[in-house]
Design brief:
By secondary structure, the chain is of the alpha+beta class. It folds into two domains: 3-81 and 188-203, Glutaredoxin, CATH 3.40.30; 91-186, Glutathione S-transferase Yfyf (Class Pi), Chain A, domain 2. The chain contains eight helices and four strands, in the order βαβαββαααααα. The chain has a four-stranded mixed sheet, with helices on one face. The chain is globular and about 40 Å long. It starts with a strand and ends with a helix.
Length: 206
C-alpha cells in the first residue's frame, strides 16, 4: 500500500515530498485545502488532533510532526542508507540532528526575531549565538552533518536552514550558504520542488 502524504505546498508538508523522494518509496499526495479549512475537517482531526500538516499514513500507521515523519520513513524504508543502523556509532549524532531544527533552530531564531526576553540557561535552545556556532562547526566538516554521509538529518536541518536563509531569519554564514547550495543540487530536492510547483499551479496559487 502506498504511503499517503496529506499535503499543501504552503505548509511544512512541502518538505516531506523531498523526504519521500530521497527515500524512494511509492507515495500518493492528498491535497488539503488550507484556505478552505480542510485541515480542521473530521478526517484530518482524526489523524492529527492538532489539525495541522504534515501527516502521513502508511497502511495502518499514522505519523505527524516533520521530525517524526522523516525518522519513520528513513528507518522503515532506508535504514543503513538515510539513517544509521541501530548499532551504528553515528546513530546518536544522527538522532540529535533530526530533532535539532524543531527543538533548537526554529524556536531560537523566532526568539531572536521577535525579541523575546528569556534566559538562555532556561530555554531548551540556549542562545541564538550558540545555535549559529554549533551549526557552523558541524557544516565546516561537511559536506553533510555526518561528514561524507548524507542522511535524513540533512533533509530536516537543510529544510529549516534553507527557509531561515530565504527569509533572513538566520545569518548568512558562508558554511550555511554553501550547504544550501549543495542541497539544492540534489535530484530529490529538485523533484520535490517541481511537484510542489505543480500542485500550486493546480490550486491557482502564485
Amino acid at each position: 500500500m502506498s504511503i499517503v502524504l496529506y499535503h499543501h505546498p504552503y505548509s511544512r508538508a512541502a518538505n516531506m515530498i523531498w523526504a519521500l523522494e530521497e527515500v524512494g518509496a511509492p507515495y500518493t499526495l492528498r491535497t488539503v485545502n488550507l484556505l478552505a479549512g480542510e485541515h480542521k475537517s473530521p478526517e484530518l482531526l482524526a489523524l492529527n488532533t492538532m489539525g495541522k500538516l504534515p501527516v502521513i499514513t502508511d497502511g495502518d500507521a499514522v505519523v505527524s510532526e516533520t521530525s517524526a515523519i522523516c525518522m519513520y520513513l528513513a528507518d522503515r524504508y532506508a535504514l543503513g542508507r538515510l539513517s544509521p543502523a541501530l548499532d551504528d556509532r553515528e546513530r546518536g549524532a544522527y538522532l540529535r540532528w533530526c530533532v535539532y531544527p524543531s527543538a533548537v533552530i526554529e524556536p531560537g531564531c523566532m526568539a531572536k526575531g521577535a525579541g523575546w526576553a528569556y534566559k538562555p540557561s532556561q530555554a531548551g535552545w540556549g542562545s541564538y549565538e550558540s545555535i549559529v556556532q554549533t551549526l557552523d562547526t558541524a557544516l565546516k566538516n561537511g559536506p553533510w552533518l555526518l561528514g561524507d554521509r548524507f542522511t535524513m538529518a540533512d533533509v530536516l536541518v537543510g529544510s529549516s536552514l534553507r527557509w531561515m536563509l530565504r527569509f533572513k531569519m538566520i545569518d548568512a554564514v558562508d558554511s550555511f550558504v554553501a550547504y544550501a547550495e549543495r542541497l539544492a543540487a540534489r535530484p530529490a530536492l529538485q523533484a520535490s520542488e517541481a511537484k510542489n510547483a505543480a500542485v500550486m499551479k493546480e490550486l491557482g496559487l502564485g
